[in-house]
Amino acid sequence: MKRSRGGLLLTLVLIWLVVYPLALVFVASVRGEAGWTLEHVRAFVTQPQEWNALWGSLWISLASVVLAGVIGVPLAFVFERLEFPGRRLLGALVALPVVMPPLVGVIAFLFLYGESGIVPRVIGVVLGLDRSPWRLHGAGAILLVHAYSMYVYFYLFSRAGLARLDESMVEAAASLGASRWKTLRRVTVPLLRPQIAAAALLTFMTSLGSFSAPYIFGGGFRVMTTQIVNTKLLEHEELAMVQTVSLAVVAFIGLWLLQRTRGTRSVAVMSKGQPPKAQVIRRPLARWTAAGLGWALAAVLLLPHATLILVSLVPLGSWTTQIFPPAYTVGNYVALLSEPERLRPLVNSLWMAAVATAGVILLSLWAGRLVVQRKVRLAKTIELLTNVPWAVPGTVLAIALATMFSVHAPAVGRVILVGTVVILPLAYLVRNVPIAAGSVLAGFRQLDPSLDEAAVSLGAGRVRTLVRITVPLLRPAIFAGAALAFVTALGDFVTSILLYTFDTRPISIEILSLLRQPDIGSAAAYGVVLMLISAGAMAIGIRFFR
Amino acid sequence: MEGWKEWKDRMRVSAGSEYRSILLPFHLSILFAAAVSCSDGRTPLVVYSPHGRDLLLLAERTFETLYPDVDLRWLDMGSQDVLDRVRSERVNPQADVWFGGPSSLFQRAAEDSLLVPYRPSWAALTHERGHGPNDLYFAAYETPAVIAYNSDALSDSDAPRDWEDVLDPRWRGELVIRDPIASGTMRAIFGMVVQRSLRATGDTAAGFRWLRRLDAQTREYVFNPAMLHQKLIRREGVLTLWDLPDILVERSKGQPFGFRLPTSGTPVIQDGIALIRGGRTPEVAKRFIEWVGSPEGQLLAAREVFRLPVRLDLPHDSLPDWVSTVRAALVVEPMDWELLGREGAGWMTYWDRHVRGRGARQ
Q1: What pLDDT, on a 0 to 100 scale, did the predictor assign at position B12?
Q2: Window A:311-330, CB contacts with B under 8 Å
Q3: Which pLDDT tens digit goes with each residue over B3-45?
């Protein structure tokens, strides 16, 4: 343990950016015009609707975790452990739901599975039905979208865990007479626990803060994120603050519970053995069946993307009662590229995501150096603080930052940033601290400290060591974290809607504006562009990560 | 492809270039930030508006041609969002003009001292009903609420003629409407129902009973205009309550929409415009307000994007035909907009808690 001015400074920076804004929201919820009051809290707890909304948020999030896990983890085993034709390509395609753009991505579901969507209409024609066999709304619809877009976390995390797994442990279990099932249950799954817990946490927080799906499908079904927006629209500012706090409290309880189940982290990193090789399926019939199933699965998973592309090619309002669009056009894309006003949001999003990503990576490197390499006294606190934004749904974070930075009081660390170009990139940065820091800290932990020491003993300065030794070795971790952070910032909707200005109007707000028009084709075209850029960024990240 | 490989190899080999690659996003971002902060020397005029891209783009192009030294920057959002934003930016106002939204919302802003009085020269040529107190805001267009329907699915003679007809058992589950909490038009219609009940019985209960029956007819409350539009043309429902300009715009784009002006009277939203307190360029903002109410501005909006002019002095022969048709059939509901501004949020809260989703259970 070393005393360090750097450690103290970083702790203060993180408290200022992460804890302080949340504390202000908490204070706002128990403060009225005449001083401290519990009136709004009382208004909250006595309203059954508020409890309904909170309960709705909670059980939807828990169910999303279960569903996403049930889809994601087995998929990871299939793609990491079985060898069949097309495995590599399919393995990448299966991760694509992560680049589904906000709002229009959800609307694509409506065109696919909704009451007047492609699938119900096909079923209707086949079975001779008059009306759609189902309606896509309420909790079921929200869960469908969540399971679809969040199983990717389980899939990616479990795959990464399986790839690092030591085969000798599995072999040892087998040689001790354990059956395959028992080995899986007693050895493999426990070893994967940190990854599964991390994915569960991410899924839980993402669905707790999820806005697009309840906004599009909710109808009468209440969750807290849409409830907060409604309360603000009904001008009960203080009640909205109480609701925000209630959501944050649920999130913190979730964080605490999941941290407890995460288990000791060192298990997975302890050994340096070889991961088991993927099992080649030898029997041709089984082989082709597996491949066929894999391709069919990928096709189903890519249907929403395909639907979005389809919608972007439909001339305004021409697709009415037909199963498939009767006419196609590239007009939506032409309009997008020919009107300079429409490209501005794209440029805005790109630079803001780039700034936020660069900033958060630098912050993570600083944290990694202090926590892992120098093991400063405040190391534990710093790591905990980098995790706090996990526990804060995007809506809550945006409200907290908006509250914090709308007052000019430099003496207590508050300046006016609301309405400036700074606030949105800053919000993206704060939101992405856990993703980037998680990745970079894990990278630091896999570094051999002797390399660093060697460089220092050979006379390299601190900066030189960092630039020439540490950063190059950390490249996979940095690129993985940066890619995820960049994509998250690029597609962000919930934080942006509260904080954007004319100069920082991002893609998601442009999509919302097109949906207000209502010009769904152009909105879809914009969504497709966003999807391609995100996929490109992820591909670059994964290339360097492998 | 070769270049890519070479680049990748170089990245692998040389730690120095690694350093550059890490900083690349940083350099890029500085470049972008510089590009963003550079203005072209024109005076920026920031307008918050729920009017939608069609009208706003038109206004931008026309106004900038008229005043080449002005850069009109509009942000398109719901009218309630405008109020929310103007409120939260009180200490550091970002916008100069609030363009569009029902007067009840402008009144809320006026109560919070978020507006500055300005009486445009065209104010005298408009209805008194569109004038805010103390010259704080003025109606720039009139927006009647209508009963709209999918004209491919329904003929004009089949469509409901009045609000009461919407409750006909025939339309049960055929009504798709905007979520009233997020929509100024819907709030005006709901406000009309409650005010009628107040006038007739001195109490709001009858109004909420009526809204409960409406809830039973409603298939879905849609948050987003695009979704409402899609659900109607794809016939998930055939009937909606909407505002006239949107329906006319959609129809002009070839969409299958028809509308009826309710015979017993309909709320005519006084679609306002106002100066925001603390705006940076009040003089340019005043010029914009003058332009919106000028004969050119009014006629352009009426011809291109179907806004009902607020000016009464425009020559008949220069107005498009639809204006006289609508004006002839329009029965204006006597609305107490001040009451709606004061009580509206409370009524909607009650509706949200005790009416939404409960009509069918009766």
Answers
A1: 43
A2: 316-317, 319-321
A3: 444 444 444 444 344 444 445 555 555 555 555 544 578 999 9
Whether residues B91 and A215 touch (CB distance < 8 A) is answered with: no
CA distance A352 to chain B (A): 7
Chain A from 462 to 501: CB within 8 A of any B CB: 467-469, 471-472, 475, 478, 482, 501
pLDDT on residue A268 = 41
Q: Which residue has the tokens 């007009």?
A: A331
pLDDT at position B198, please? 96
Pairwise CB contact (< 8 Å): A419 & B234 = no
The tens digit of pLDDT for each residue in A389-439 reads: 877 778 888 889 988 998 888 888 888 888 889 999 999 999 999 888 988
The residue of chain B nearest to residue A115, with distances taken between CA atoms, is B236
Contact: A515, B224; criterion CB under 8 Å: yes
Task: Give backbone dihedrals phi and psi of A221, rounded to 5 degrees, phi first.
Answer: -80, 125
How large is the ipTM? Answer: 0.83
Q: Is A82 helix (H, G, I), strand (E, B) or coil?
A: strand
Q: Which of residues 225-254 of A touch B (CB under 8 A)?
A: 230, 232-236
Q: Are residues B174 and B135 in the same domain?
A: no
Residue A361's nearest CA partner among A303, A428, A295 is A428
A398 neighbors A212 (Cβ within 8 angstroms): no
A46 touches chain B (CB under 8 A): no
What residue numbers bound the domain in which B228 lies?
Answer: 144-267+336-361
Contact: A47, B152; criterion CB under 8 Å:
no
Question: In this predicted model, what pLDDT tens digit does every residue of B240-279 receive, in sequence order?
Answer: 999 999 999 999 988 999 999 999 999 999 999 999 999 9
B98/B112 same-domain check? yes
Q: Give the per-residue pLDDT at A16.
A: 93
Residue B324 lies in a domain: no
B274 falls within a domain: yes
| Beta bridge mates, B242 | B146
Helix (H) or strand (E) holding A418: none
CB-based contacts of B276, cutoff 8 Å, min separation 6? B48, B86, B93, B95, B96, B97, B98, B114, B115, B116, B285
pTM for the model stands at 0.86
B351, closest residue in chain A (CA to CA):
A234
Distance between CA atoms of B84 and B96, rounded to whole angstroms?
15
Cα–Cα distances (Å) from A497 to B80, B82, B101, in that order, read 13, 12, 19
Residue B13 placed within a domain: yes
pLDDT at A84: 79
| Same domain? B246 vs B356 | yes
Whether A164 contacts A275, CB under 8 Å: yes
Query: Which domains does chain A carry?
Result: 1-37+334-546 (1.10.3720.10), 45-329 (1.10.3720.10)
- Residue of B25, B226, B352 lying closest to A520 (CB–CB): B226
B46 has a chain A CB within 8 A of its CB? yes
3-state secondary structure of B49: strand
pLDDT single digits (tens) B116-163: 999 999 999 999 999 999 999 999 999 999 999 999 999 999 999 999
Q: Report the relative pairing of strands A31-32 and A35-36 from DSSP bridges.
A: antiparallel
Residue position matching structure tokens 């974290």: A481
Contact A421 B33 (CB under 8 A): yes
CA angle A87, A94, A98 (to 5 degrees): 150
Does residue B61 belong to the interface with chain A, where contact is any CB pair within 8 Å? no
Chain A residues closer than 8 Å to B78 by CB:
516
Same-domain check for residues B258 and B343: yes
Determine if the peptide bond prior to A518 is cis (ω within 30°). Answer: yes
* Structure token pair of residue A90: 């399919």
B178 contacts chain A (CB < 8 A): no
